[in-house]
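re: ur question from earlier - yeah i can do the single chain one, its not a big deal. heres the input i used so u can compare w yours
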Amino acid sequence: MGGRSALPVASIKERLDTFESVYGARLHLVQGDLTDKDVVYRLFEEVRPEAIVHLGECPSAPYSMIDADHAIWVQRNNIEGTMNVLYAMRDLAPESHLVKLGTMGEYGTPNLDIPEGFFEVEYRGRRDRLPFPRQAGSWYHWSKVHDSNNVMFACRIFGLRATDVMQGVVYGTRFFGNAADHPADPALHTRLDFDQAFGTALNRFSCQSVIGEPLTLFGLGNQRRGFLPICDSMQCLALAVDNPPQAGDYRVFNQFEETYTISELAAKVATVASEMGLDPRIRRIENPRKEMEEHHYNPDHDHLLALGYQPTRDMESELRAMLEDLLPHHDRIAARREVLLPDIRWDGSRRKSGFLDGSNGTGDAGIEDPPFGERGKRDAGAEAGVSNSGIH
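and the output i got, formated as tokens:
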């Protein structure tokens, strides 16, 4: 996609060596492709796992929407990999527990509150507990829906046990170290992508703040989603592993802390960035996606709380930590600033999103138009390839 991690990523060897020096344990690494059944079976034969935390899928909606080849690859990669894991569990580790990373995007934005996987339905005088309908918004999200259905079915027919974690948007740079408030050894940093396919809105806003580019909202910016910091995401996965379901049970956890609109996120980033001496500006751009920008959004998330989950970080402190970690890499981010504006459109075309006329910042953060200086206007115009007069 032309991007790269804003934070440098150490080599595999350096990461393994650093982990061992910090935690006193050597991680066992096997490199292979989950869509290769022989690779998965060999791994299960060697390890005989008690629990499997499955994070090995392509996580990008825009990537899946580029064209037929990308859509088909994402579906095959994600679904086939999970199917291989399910069959390896059945044949080689039937007592193990699968913790499968799903996504809140499986649900879409229905005009109903969103339960954790299942809800009670009454229809023509009869009642039943059924899977909550999924209304995914991309080929990627549909691959995750198909995963959920396959995992649920495997639990029923094979007697497996699984936790499907419907994760909100994860953000942050710090999840190792002895305390969440202290940065880890740089060799243990996670990736932080900021391109249109693999960079989330918060990643993009943070990187835009660091290099003086406008924080770009898709359309109205009223899309609401769930969010949680990466250190608390790790806490949630650990709770799921430590509290497995019974054999044959398929359960769903909605994993997030708070819901925010994209506009609210941008305002929070801008406020923290301003306090740190940066000069953030917010602008709206054409929304390349087909999605509801005004919608009801009220998901449940009680199951993890019942297991003892306690949020450890507020968004403002986590954003400050992100910006502190990103500022030393200003030049690394600036060198790829052209990837900040999206050009993958849900109709299959490729065209950079342009800035919308009449875009105003959010007063809460003290942001006004014009959102950035003359240099920024020239750069954005070149990247967008369109003039404001051509946007409607």
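The domain at 12-390 is CATH 3.40.50.720 (Rossmann fold). not sure if urs matches, ping me
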